[in-house]
Known about the structure:
- The two termini are 24 Å apart.
- By secondary structure, the chain is an alpha+beta fold.
- Helix 3 (86-99) crosses helix 5 (111-118).
- It is 35% helix and 13% strand.
- The chain is built from 5 helices and 3 strands.
Amino acid sequence: MTCRRRPSWRLPTPPTRRLSSTAWPRNPTPNGWDALAYLHWYAAVGRPAEAYVALGRLWERRFGAELVAHWGTMLQCYVDRPPRSLGDAWDLARMHDLVAPSTLALPGIRLRHYAPSLVGCDRWFLHERP
């Protein structure tokens, strides 16, 4: 599995017509990862949101990861500097699995297959659900 094999992955686009049931909240901070402190993410149930904000900021500094969509159980990111080595990708894959185990568990992906797919991958999709 690599990011190149997921052509259907797209960023959300605003609706072309106004819908009364649709809300587009604005993040009250310039850092996208701070949204985890304001909008509930299922992976943070019973845990302090600050830890997830700090982890996101670490990914932003290290990989240029920008949080671009937050769906409550899913996070989508654009990545400017994806991992270039298998060692860095393995460390990142382990973090993804620890933070959002549904990312790998639900589709039945093993860590040893997920890690190499992160090398050079400019999009991340994290999934954690009940």
